[in-house]
Amino acid sequence: MQSKILDIKNYNVELQTNAADTTTDVIQSVMSEAGEYGFVVFKLDENRKQKPHFHTYGDIDIFMVVEGSGILHLAEVKDDQIVSGSNESLQLKQGDIYSVKPYFLHSIETKNEPIVIANIAPLAHSDLKEGRKNQIAVDLFFTKN
């Protein structure tokens, strides 16, 4: 829906028609942008695992589970390696909200149902396989191990 003042988008429609693959193996759509931050919705189908990754930049990286459930895998990263003993796995369900700080490895795993997550983060956190129009930088890293 469009008005003279703003755009209203439906995340289901956007995921079906304007979504793109990312290098972390989720399907995502940028719903809104403001400065260097974006509101993104991404989906991970059932029985899949997102590629674990971390970021070094940003004040805000907030997530909300919109649909489904999954497992959030976390670990602290130092010198591009996982800090021993810092691994955690947490159950996620619809309505859960969490944030991830820089230098924390994170990924989502699904079992019998897909998960849809809304995310507010620097646009540099999004790394689409085919590239992003006007993207200046990418802040997406993978551990050495």
Describe this structure in words.
The chain is mainly beta. The chain has a single domain (11-125), classed as Jelly Rolls. 5% of the residues lie in helices and 41% in strands. The chain has one helix and nine strands, in the order αβββββββββ. The protein has one helix at 11-17, and strands spanning 20-21, 27-34, 37-44, 62-78, 81-82, 88-93, 97-99, 104-109, 115-122. Strands 1, 2, 3, 4, 5, 6, 7, 8 and 9 form a nine-stranded antiparallel beta sheet that branches. A hairpin with a 5-residue loop joins strand 1 (20-21) and strand 2. The protein is globular. The chain starts with 10 loop residues before the first helix and ends in a 23-residue tail after the last strand. 26% of the residues are buried. The mean pLDDT is 91.
Descriptive terms for the model:
single chain, 145 residues, mainly beta, Jelly Rolls, 9-stranded antiparallel β-sheet, 1 helix, 9 strands
What is the fold's blueprint, element by element?
Elements: H1 11-17, E1 20-21, E2 27-34, E3 37-44, E4 62-78, E5 81-82, E6 88-93, E7 97-99, E8 104-109, E9 115-122
Antiparallel strand pairs: 1-2, 2-3, 3-9, 4-5, 4-6, 4-7, 4-8, 4-9
Overall SS class: mainly beta
Number of strands: 9
The N- to C-terminal Cα distance equals 46 Å
Mean of all residue-level pLDDT scores: 91
- In terms of DSSP E residues, the strand content is 35-45%
Name of the top-level CATH class: Mainly Beta
By CATH, the superfamily comes out as Jelly Rolls
The CATH topology, please? Jelly Rolls
Element pattern in H and E:
HEEEEEEEEE
Helix content: under 10%
Q: Report the uncertain regions.
A: none
Helix count, DSSP H or I runs of 4 or more residues: 1
Rounded to an integer in angstroms, the radius of gyration calculated over CA atoms is 15 Å
- What would you call the shape? globular
**Main sheet summary:** 9 strands, antiparallel
* Number of structurally distinct domains: 1
Gross CATH architecture: Sandwich
